[in-house]
Amino acid sequence: MSDVLAVVPARGGSKGVPRKNLRAVDGKPLIAHVLHTLAQMPEARTVVSTEDAEIAAWCRLRGYEVVDRPADLAADDVPVGAVVGHAVAALGWRGPVLLVQQTCPLLTAATLRLLDRVANENGAAVGLRAGVHQTWCPDGWVTPRVNRQQLVA
């Protein structure tokens, strides 16, 4: 990958699975899995975006960079694009951005490198979610995206 900013959104107020980011999955916190994967990619600058003091402290204690997210960007109805945009602006980042959901503990560095290669070859941002490709540009999602909380059962 080229120099890329990897943003890991980690909200503390999950309603579906409370405190999920710090809950153990295979013996370690859920968020640790993607952070470990990203640590295998020295070309990526990894940042965790959170409004939660406990998540921020856990990350900082282990040497991960944290972007303190304002509470108004941590509500159920806030799209992830706004969270990524905040992190990019807060850091003054001017390069490629990779959104890595913390809820993907089986994600591999090889998959992320493949995704980056496809995006670079096509000159667009590409994302994967439940087998659906999504594209995003600074103006917003090109492919419509709905937060899980907005889905009707």
Structural class per helix/strand content? Answer: alpha/beta
Strand content: 15-25%
Helix-strand sequence: EEEHEHEHEHEEEE
Proportion of residues in helical segments: 25-40%
Largest sheet: 4 strands, parallel
What does the overall shape look like? globular
Ends distance: 38 Å
List the strand order in the largest sheet. 5-4-1-6
- Average pLDDT confidence is 81
**Nearest-angstrom radius of gyration?**
15 Å
Q: List segments where confidence is low: pLDDT < 50 over at least 5 consecutive residues.
A: 128-133
Number of β-strand runs: 10
What is the helix tally?
A: 4
Structure description:
By secondary structure, the protein is α/β, with parallel strands linked by helices. Helices cover 29% and strands 22% of the residues. It has helices at 30-39, 53-61, 80-91, 109-122; strands spanning 4-9, 24-25, 28-29, 44-50, 65-68, 97-99, 127-129, 132-134, 136-137, 140-141. Strands 5-4-1-6 form a 4-stranded parallel beta sheet, sandwiched between helices.
Summarize the structure.
The protein has helices spanning 30-39, 53-61, 80-91, 109-122; strands at 4-9, 24-25, 28-29, 44-50, 65-68, 97-99, 127-129, 132-134, 136-137, 140-141.
